[in-house]
Amino acid sequence: MEVYKGVSEESDARYLLSYINDVLIPASEEFFALLNQNQVLLHHAFSFNTILSHAIDYMVFIAKKVNKLSGNSSVIKRKDFISKFDEKYHVDGCSHINNKFKLLDAVNNSFKHVELEQKRYADLIKMYGDLNFHNLSAEDGKVFFKSQLYSFDYCRVVMRPIAKIFDCNIKTHNDVDDFINGRIHGSFGYGNFLYEYEPYDAIDRIIDFCDSEYIECIDCGEIGDRCDCVSYIYDQKSGERSPNIDPNFDFNDVMSNISGTREWRKK
Asked: Which of 145, 181, 153, 167 is nearest to 2 (CA)?
């Protein structure tokens, strides 16, 4: 479902384009450089979190204005807008934190204010407990989100995929409306494979499957033993490594295409 119908004003679209391309994308490049080397400090995390959150503010402004000018009587609330963004841009490979934009917004406001508005963030507070500035803490070049029931790398699990969503090379007025309405977005491409799913693909598919140890984890983006998702905690449950393996992979089916022996023959 679209956030709004119609077209945003050109001046507003240009403003958002300028912010994304001149501020957010360059900040993303610096952020990823630090992230890949495990050199993120607390102020880096809060600064980039603020930059990502401000982009949401500008999009909400555009959506409200388009709605008003089109004579639509419905009111676009920021909270609802962010919820729809979490639904539209359900982050690739997100196994545990499916409310990334909501959490990004809450962390940003917990940084700006001493106390969060309890009613506004009631669902998040119920899930994570009281949210405040101290939920983020730096450890050995990583910044973790920690609460009573949760402990995970906030930069990798939350900000990394959100930053990638904004990195979709939007350039025109129409691109802005497409982005806000969920028709265009950046992606890590997890879960998407180029196989034709024909017998001649079978060997490539089994090689990729067996090499999963060297494939990027879809939750943290790390490869092999650099992934420490097993040490993360989600609602008192341990995390796990989630390599980007073909979701359509069927071992027996693949082996039946490789070998003609009876044990691998399709039933």
From this structure: 181
